[in-house]
Amino acid sequence: MPCQNIYEVLEELDKIIESTVKENNYLGIFAYVYRRTTAEVLKGVENKSFDDNARMVRLDVTFANLYLQAYQDYRMNRMISQSWQTAFDAKNEELTILQHIMLGMNAHINLDLAIAASTVMEGADIHLLKEDFNRVNVVLAHIVDELQKKTGKVSRFLFLLDWAGKRNDEKFIDFSMAKAREQSWNSAVALWSLDVNARTEATYRLDTAVNLLATQVRLPSSGLLRRLLRFIGYFEEKSVSKIINAMKE
Q: What is the pTM of this model?
């Protein structure tokens, strides 16, 4: 059954994290990062930090259910979006920790968030959501900072991205945290403005575009970046349990 509130979302994410840790499945890394973000949004709701806290709960739960459904459908070998298919198919690939996180963020923020926002605001003026939508960026900025520092504990040479590309590591993370949310808002407005039939086709086109980004995250076009990521990944922690524990510290 779909989750009805944020507490249920957190419980479902805990189940995914627990099962992926047992399997040493890299999908658990994104699940933990997403749980961390969801917990921060819940704090904001409890502190009444949003213009419409009840609406933010609806958005957060709708948003989460898209991920949870995609995850369960994938486990049951049912058809899912191209973007999530690419992200989930990488579950046992020896990509860097950062790449595994980014694959999840790409599908969840660039695709799911637009769908969730347009769904929640159907029949209302979506622009009324924009201030609260943007407030979440403050939460995400904090998570980005924390994420970088903690990932460094289990990825000794992550700093080389900084050396090689003038803070490419931050840009890589920022791609799906702040900038992707901005693009997601534009996509949400576009989907919201369409009728049901047109929205289905537009969602498919959006998924196709987002999946192209996923393929770049999985296998960057830059030869230098591919070699650098392989080097970084070679020396990274391979235990999903230890990676998640490092992020909790």
A: 0.92
